[in-house]
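Entry type: protein chain
Record version: 2
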Amino acid sequence: VFSQPAFDIQEMITLQNQIQGELRSALSEPSELGRQALQSALYKGTPAEFPFTGTVAGIAKAAPRDAQGFFEKNYTIDNLVVGISSSLSDEEMSRRIKAKLDVIARGARVAQPFPAWTLQGKRAFIVPKPGLEASSVWVALPGVGAAHPSVLELELANFIFGGDFTSRLTNALRGDTGWTYSAYAGFEMVQSWEAQPTSFAVATEPLAEHLGDTIRATWSELKKFAVSGLNAEDFDYASHAVPKRYPNYVETAQQRVRAKVREVLTGRPAWSSSSYSSAVDGFSLRALNATVKAAFPLDQIAFVVVGDPAAARAALSEIPGMDSIEAVEVTP
């Protein structure tokens, strides 16, 4: 595959048709429609404006020579990271891997840092879809990079806010009210971790009749979290619960290799269970809340709503300091 790639025209046509069908199908889901609208709004004018899987038009233009050129530029030994778990010694495993990799071409390392937000201010975008049984609401703030020194504190705080099924968001929007099917928040809602800052986002899927209430409550919960962080009871619960769950993410060899590869690519440390617990033990409530407040200023924020435009605009208009509310269209 690496040394003698083949780009057969008929195979490419078949794959293009399959991918184009998948791209169109994905937009039948309000949540994916909202995520793509959000991504486009945050990164307008950059390559990240478009879905990472491509667009129908872009896929249609791809020819074998384009695939060949992309492969020759990017699939080189200098851009390769190998993660492996084996019973063999490091020296023996390295020897075997290097013997196989010698057939791969060398080339310049391709550095493509993830772009920064181009969106400025507090802005809202409505994807008009009247008649939906369930709508989609997304809210995003600038995030942090994977190697940010406060990333564990922020994840611990988000465990209480929106990272778990017992979170404040779930209770406010589902458990206590029954307005939504689900409600979550995190740093990987729009895209995966990158070395550069990306996004912290909230996503929820309210029933159409509760769209306005959900928008108002989501903003209220997010504002309370960004300004005040956690209380002592929340902090104590998260400080005990999160480290106990962490071993589930590093218990297998495959999980540990994945974490190590991610560390190489993004700088996010591949913590062991003990090092993770030790780090959390060093947190204090006051410092954590100061970190949350500094990380989530509320003057740069994006709202995306998929659903009834009148109900969406009415609720969004009540949010103080909104710079603009506009209707947008999302195409595959």
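Comment: Residues 61 and 175 are 47 Å apart (CA to CA).
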